[in-house]
Amino acid sequence: MTAAAAHAWGEEPLLRVRGLKVHFPIKRGVVFDRTVGHVQAVDGVDLSIARGSTYGLVGESGCGKSTLGRAILRLEEPTAGEVLFDGTDVASLKGEALRTMRRRMQMVFQDPLGSLDPRQNVESLLSEPLRAHGLGGGTAGIAEKIRGLLDAVGLPSAALRRYPHEFSGGQRQRIGIARAIALEPDLLIADEPVSALDVSVQAQVLNLLEELQERLGLTYLVIAHDLAVVRHISDVVGVMYLGSLVEQAPADDLYEQPLHPYTRALMSAVPVPDPVVEETRERILLAGDLPSPANPPSGCRFHTRCPWRQETRCDDEVPVLRELAPGRLVSCHWAEEIRDGVLQPKSADEVAALMGVSVRATGAGPIETDALVQGVDEPIERR
Amino acid sequence: MSSLQGGAPVLEVEDLSVTFQRKGEKPTRAVDGVSFSVAPGETVGLVGESGCGKSVTSLAIMGLLPSRGVKVGGSVRLEGEELIGAGSRKLRSLRGAHMAMVFQDPLSSLNPTVQIGTQVTEVLLEHRDMSKAEAAAEAVTLLDRVGIPDPRRRLKEYPHQLSGGMRQRALIAMALACSPRLLIADEPTTALDVTIQAQILELLKELVVDTGTALVMITHDLGVVAGLCDRVHVMYSGKIIETADRHELFARPRQPYTGGLLASVPRLDAGRGTPLTPIRGSARDAIPWAEGCAFAPRCDNAQDDCLTEVSGSVVPLAYDGPGRELRCRHPLEHPTAPSGATALGAPR
């Protein structure tokens, strides 16, 4: 944890999310759009982010992590719940008040080329947010400010007259970050900020994000599917599965001892660039695919794939996110028993046989690839 | 390691070069003097960042590059048979039967308007002397083998009805239909989630052990390489710059680029705040391999003789200890690293 985060621990968190739900209607029919069901992209998430800290949100595609990020900014309309930003409920804001509030929360997108207007040069891209909010103090002030921004993200001032296509991926992401910090926000939501970049460039952008946090006292919500990236950058990590948080803990604790069965499986699946580690560590293979969020399993949503599933409770009783140790939240009925080794995991084959699915993907939902290939986790079935 | 491993190499690539020539533009050399070989039951990794020529290498091996505007030089031999310059009819009879490929994006490599079953049996009908009924039965076996549940029902479905992991499995099933001697997998798990990636990698590992297929794994993910490949070739700007056994490579990277890649990847087993050391600049800034070393502008070890060539040639790929080759004048030194420990921190 950074010093700033530790300092702010006792204070009111900058962002507090309570019972947030985002459901998308599934429509069928040609003339009349009948709603035949809902995709429960985000289904009851509580989290809070301390000032100056970094909250990392991980999960596989389709788990709702991007929708959650967008709902916090009101880029998606929440179905229920509240988003308290510095004590104000963002969900209830309208018009000018919302616009002003958005100045304080900015977003960095995954695909830097897709999120920058190809017909605007860098100067125009960076001055736009300042002009829109009437900040920067006139033409001279804005020019001064933009030079400072370029300097902050490590781009030469010669970049001003150039267009997004003239830059490499890493440089484009730097422009995206400069644009996001132009308004001096308090909260920066970064949705897969480095997943489109080459590994050697990833590290540059990650370092830049950390440096800016230190310098500007930013609070981050970093959404990523790469657990190694999230561990590197986060103070607190939340793991999402099918629309809800299954575990939340300080980063090092979570990686030291994951408590939720899903977190354990997820971590064991991440390849480590070291053959010695790769050969010795235990891999927990999960049975099947992510179930469809339009029709999530009853009880614990993970029970269909869980190697620790028990006869009782798992199938019919929804687990709540409870505090097992200070700062360590987990939503599993059997977390203590699993932690203490009282319960032993079944192999993927056994789980598969029990649930009547294959050890390998069952093909329940055609979500994941489409989302990843297109570059964003767009909620599915949305028209 | 498979008992089927060893013997004469399945694939020999020698001095392969691919040049793209567009009218009125300077020719671009995407692959330059690449040589490697793959033995039965062996998994060889081609690693590099985007634009390093790894995918073009695979397309050149398969003979899938367009004939117009592309000049392919050197030699590619599949079980001793020369593929460069072979006729398209000849290549067609080899592709699918003796060599097969799995692509990165399963959705765009499957025909969206054709049932999975038809797409799998097409390979069988083309290359194996089978009746439609036999082919259909074989397709069920194939889908079952790659772990697709309820294969009979799946055969009637269209690609969009399958999940990403399932589509990739279907592609692998198609690639395996004629038990090819060579399988090229071009970023087969990049579009998949980690839990599904783990399933697919496990499947590929099993296949290599069970069938003795030679596997060429093309990837940018060093973690995937660490778990899967026997030998690794690191590519940069179209050339191989380092070759080593995977244990050697990860424990003692010699090329500063390889070392830089390893130092810039955040590791799951490294604590919060472990510093990342990025490589300066990006590949696009690099000069092509006209002289000296293309990585020199980004390299911390670079000296004058890396940039301006003294002897008038590119830095050669040279012998660097048993099983290792290196293209570098000022490699990283690893004084007395005990075996088993890595250069970048002890294993968990």
Number of strands of chain A: 12
Q: Which CATH first-tier class of the largest domain in chain A would you pick? A: Alpha Beta
Outline type of chain B: globular
Total beta strands of chain B: 12
Proportion of residues in helical segments of chain B? 25-40%
pLDDT averaged over residues of chain A: 84
How much of the sequence lies in strands of chain B comes to 15-25%
Q: Report strand order across the widest sheet of chain B.
A: 6-7-8-3-9-10-12-11
What's the end-to-end separation of chain A, in Å?
42 Å
Q: Uncertain segments of chain A of ≥5 residues (pLDDT<50)?
A: 1-9, 359-383
Q: In this structure, how is the largest beta sheet of chain A organized?
A: 8 strands, mixed
Q: Which descriptor suits the 3D outline of chain A?
A: globular
CATH fold-level name of the largest domain in chain A: Rossmann fold
Over all CA atoms, what is the radius of gyration of chain A?
Answer: 22 Å
What percentage of residues of chain A falls in helices of 4 or more residues?
25-40%
Task: Report the average pLDDT across residues of chain B.
Answer: 85
What proportion of the residues of chain A form beta strands (DSSP E)? Answer: 15-25%
Q: In angstroms, what is the radius of gyration of chain B?
A: 21 Å
Tell me the count of domains of chain A: 2
Biggest interface goes to: A-B, 67 and 72 residues
Detailed description of the structure:
The complex is a heterodimer of chains A (383) and B (348). Chain A is α/β, with parallel strands linked by helices and 383 residues long. Chain A has two domains: 244 residues, Rossmann fold; 106 residues, no CATH class. The two termini of chain A are 42 Å apart. Chain B is an alpha/beta fold. In chain B, the strands form two sheets. Chain B has an eight-stranded mixed β-sheet with strand order 6-7-8-3-9-10-12-11, sandwiched between helices. In chain B, strand 4 and strand 5 form a beta hairpin. The longest helix of chain B is centred in the middle third of the chain and has 18 residues. The C terminus of chain B is likely disordered. Chain A: Belongs to the ABC transporter superfamily. Chain A: It comes from Blastococcus saxobsidens. Chain A: Keywords: ATP-binding, Nucleotide-binding, Transport. Chain A: One of its GO terms (molecular function) is ATP hydrolysis activity.
